[in-house]
Fold:
Amino acid sequence: MVFPNLKAALLALIGVVITACGPQVERPPSELQADRHSMVTFTSDPDAACRGISTHKGEARILGCEFHSALVVPNPCGVSGAYADLLCHELGHANGWNHD
Structure:
């Protein structure tokens, strides 16, 4: 299933994670917040996954990154909240879970 608002939703999820952890993330200008198709990698360690590919190498801890239009973001199953629960549920399906 394709989610047309996935990038905006993932940015919101990253905002939730970052707010819970403390540091604030700068939001892009509104004209760059449009819906877009992107590949997404969910990882339990975005810092390690992004460190070699991100332009944010000088940061103490990288919470997510983008590389050639692919997003690398925290695994939603390790985050609380309704949106994280939805993404965790769908990630389970992507990993082969069938609750029917």
About this structure: Residues 82 and 88 are 10 Å apart (CA to CA).
